[in-house]
Design goal:
There is one protein chain. With 398 residues, this protein is of the alpha/beta class. 35% of the residues lie in helices and 23% in strands. Strands 1, 2, 3, 4, 5, 14, 15 and 16 form an eight-stranded mixed beta sheet that branches. An eight-stranded parallel beta sheet has the order 6-7-8-9-10-11-12-13. Helix 4 runs parallel beside helix 5, helix 5 runs parallel beside helix 6 and helix 11 runs antiparallel to helix 12. The structure holds zinc ion.
Length: 398
């Protein structure tokens, strides 16, 4: 496949073109199988490509978006709770329990159909890789079933790639009310035994109303000892110990980070923990915008994700997240685009992903716009005209 007619190509590799995004004007991309074979100026494109041609019509071509934080496996609807919150009721972590009840009652087919619908929606918005968490089961069979749904999503041919995370320590389920240490023992024992074979990552919600730092550390150390990578929901609703815990354990990513002190920022940056910011969650819970500028200035790697979940951020749209990152978090369009592609890959432990360079996965987004700047300039407008996944065009807007 040869993609030509590219007005502006973002390679995300400064060695390949101009600026930090490695931009090439009037470019072409050659794909061999599911990998990028060549990128460069169209005038130097390889001759005699006998595969399909994909005309970008002068638009901008980007690496596919990498969304490193989603809760796609759930059942039920929380629009009534959401409306109540818009009318002034405070958000606390307990709203998750309504989804837990619906998820436990749902069979595998129901959970998979819902997750497929959302993953398909994400793909249409340009997302080619998704992290997918469990965490609405909170018992051994439903946590296991949730990760089986994530695995089935990952095997579907025309859906984004999936990186699965075990989040048994999301909140304390109702039957363990007042016995959170007993629940932690279940998570670290039988639940991890059942879930580890299906997960790459172990996550924990370290927040007042969820788990304290000692409980969170116990879960993450248990997951790590079984070979899982570590990620943390940290400092979302108030300042707390989650960011420091992520730095202490050299987590691959600390997520949310709405409320950070300077020592937190220094600890994350010096430990090499990716700071995954979720501005749609801040928007929908009316929290202040996260400290993206301070993190970037401290040299931290920043990623952007949707936090897609039925309570506090029910969106799959990375273009919308990029727009919010520019308008609310004061990131530049180039910083936001990097955070939504290579930053997301870094948050999933892939230091070279989210790029369009020879040898990288052939996952790309074609925009009906001359530049990625339009993702912020035209908030809420779907500018994705085509998506290429594993070397094949899987989404085309007529
Ligand atoms: Zn989350």
């Amino acid at each position: 496949v040869l993609i030509d007619g590219i007005g502006l190509l973002v390679t995300n590799d400064p060695a390949m073109g101009a600026g930090p995004l490695g931009e090439i004007r009037d470019a072409a991309v050659a794909i061999d199988g599911d990998r990028i074979a060549w990128v460069g100026p169209a005038s130097a494109a390889p001759e005699g490509v006998d595969g399909d041609r994909l005309d970008a019509a002068g638009g901008c071509v980007l690496p596919g978006f990498v969304d490193p934080h989603t809760h796609l496996v759930f059942a039920g609807d929380r629009s009534a709770e959401f409306a109540a919150r818009l009318a002034g009721r405070a958000y606390d972590a307990g709203g998750i329990r309504a989804t837990v009840a619906a998820t436990r009652a749902a069979d595998m087919g129901t959970l998979l159909d819902n997750a497929k619908r959302l993953a398909g929606e994400a793909l249409k918005g340009g997302t080619t890789t998704l992290e997918v968490k469990s965490g609405y089961g909170l018992d051994v069979p439903t946590e296991r079933r949730s990760l089986e749904v994530a695995a089935a999503l990952g095997e579907a041919p025309v859906l984004p790639r999936v990186s699965p995370t075990f989040l048994g320590a999301h909140v304390v389920p109702p039957e363990f009310e007042g016995r959170s240490d007993d629940y932690i023992a279940l998570v670290c024992g039988e639940m991890l035994d059942a879930c580890t074979p299906l997960a790459e990552w172990c996550d924990v919600f370290c927040e007042r109303g969820a788990f304290d730092p000692d409980q969170s550390r116990t879960v993450l150390v248990a997951g790590h000892s079984r070979g899982l990578g570590v990620r943390v929901h940290a400092n979302q609703l108030a300042h707390g110990p989650g960011a420091q815990l992520a730095a202490e354990l050299a987590a691959v990513s600390a997520d949310h980070l709405t409320h950070l002190t300077e020592p937190d920022i220094e600890a994350l940056a010096s430990a090499g923990v990716v700071a995954t910011l979720l501005p749609t969650a801040e928007l929908c819970t009316r929290e202040p915008p996260g400290p993206a500028r301070r993190l970037l200035e401290a040299g931290a790697t920043v990623a952007l994700g949707t936090d897609c979940n039925p309570g506090t951020s029910y969106t799959t749209s990375m273009p919308f997240v990029i727009a919010l990152a520019c308008h609310l978090l004061r990131m530049t369009p180039a910083e936001a685009l990097a955070a939504a592609t290579s930053g997301g890959a870094a948050a999933l432990g892939d230091a070279t992903g989210g790029r369009l360079v020879p040898g990288s996965p052939a996952d790309a987004v074609l925009l009906d716009a001359p530049s990625y700047v339009h993702l912020a300039y035209r908030p809420g407008v779907n500018l994705v005209s085509s998506v290429v996944l594993r070397g094949e065009r899987v989404v085309q807007v007529a």
